[in-house]
Amino acid sequence: MKDIEYKSVEEIKQFQEELLAKALRYLNENSVYYRRMFQKCEIDIEKIKTIEDLVKIPFTEKKDLQLFNEEFLCCPKEKVVDYITTSGTLGDPVTFGCTDSDLERLAYNEKKSFECVGVGPGSIVQLMTTLDKRFMAGLAYFLGIRKLGASVIRVGNGIPELQWDTIRRIKPDTIMCVPSFILRLIEYAEENGIDYRNSSIRRIIGIGEGLREQNFELNMLGRRIKEKWDVELYATYSSTEMGATFSECPHSCGGHVHPELIIVEIIGEDNMPVPDGCYGEVVITTLGVEGMPLLRFRTGDIAAKRVEQCKCGRNSYRLTPIMGRKNNMIKLKGTTLYPPAINDVLDNAEYVANYVIYVQESDSGTDEVVVKIGLKHPTEFDAIKNLKDRFRSRIRVAPIVEILPVDEIQKINFPAKSRKPIKFIDNRGKH
User: Fold this and answer.
1) Contact partners, residue 363, CB within 8 Å, separation at least 6
2) pLDDT tens digit string along 77-127?
3) Who's near 84: CB < 8 A, 6+ residues apart?
4) Are residues 367 and 297 both part of a single domain?
5) Are residues 150 and 265 in the same domain?
6) What is the pTM of this model?
7) Would you say residue 21 lies in a domain?
């Protein structure tokens, strides 16, 4: 059977609308939360026939999942085989229950995403991400690689010495990790005489951090990796709530959406869909989820749809790199920006060991950004002035820059209970 992503745009839309009708009936029958919402808002789900009709349904927000968590579960608890939680980026983490069917769906999603970047039977993928700590991603990657018929090495995150020892012993061709960790791997290799450029690695799949600009060119972090290590670089976008991954293909023109698994809307400031190609908030409706399906869930992420056919032949739409999170938008000295633009400057400053970005309200009520950095070594030049010049060159404005001991910032980056490094702290409205 031909993959739905290669069928015509009209066929894809019709296919998704058939799955949407099934999803709505399933929610009405099995979800306490959504059945109540349909009744309260007087929504006749049989009249929601097209994707355009979705605007008649209210959004689901993170706070709804936090306040009414158990009401989203659509199956008996004994059917849940795996409990996971979100990372708690915007407050308390949310619990999700996955059934056996949901784990099969996850495996299918990741199988397709790995195929998209060229991984297949015979490939060996080194996972530099955790499979514990209630984390969905690591488990999903493992299941997808297994379903694909490729080999997996579950090394986990950190520990450059163990990562390089694994590469030397088992010779994987693919690494999957947070992109900024690649710079640490390269640094370790250079310090220890490891000929990393002639290692077995041919492909790096990045998770959790962007590698590209909005025009799909490599960003500063991506360029810095590529200049050091000439391997194939692929960016991905995923979240626990979506239960899906948007992965680039070798043409690097955005993350491919799997139409059988998810419907994506891009919503503007007026809460209505924006024209294709315009930026807005990513809103998702999951398809085929048994345990905790979501309807019109606001992700908070800002991106745009690209709908022209990809050079790879797929007709399913793609997402641009995530510009930032809606709630994290900063207005600094009249310039609108998102934290990834600040990260990109800091990740490209070779003398910066680590950093944390704070945004707070100034005495005049405007946004104030303070960047605290740790230095790898003392510099012969004024590091603060150099960094401010880099910021002005890149984003036109410069935040306040302070230098702190590396260990002090390390403690902020990696608090005891966090699964992801904390590099951005928003203190607006907290005083």
Assistant:
1) none
2) 999 999 998 865 445 778 999 999 999 999 999 999 999 999 999 999 999
3) 95, 96, 98, 134, 135, 136, 139, 240
4) no
5) yes
6) 0.84
7) yes
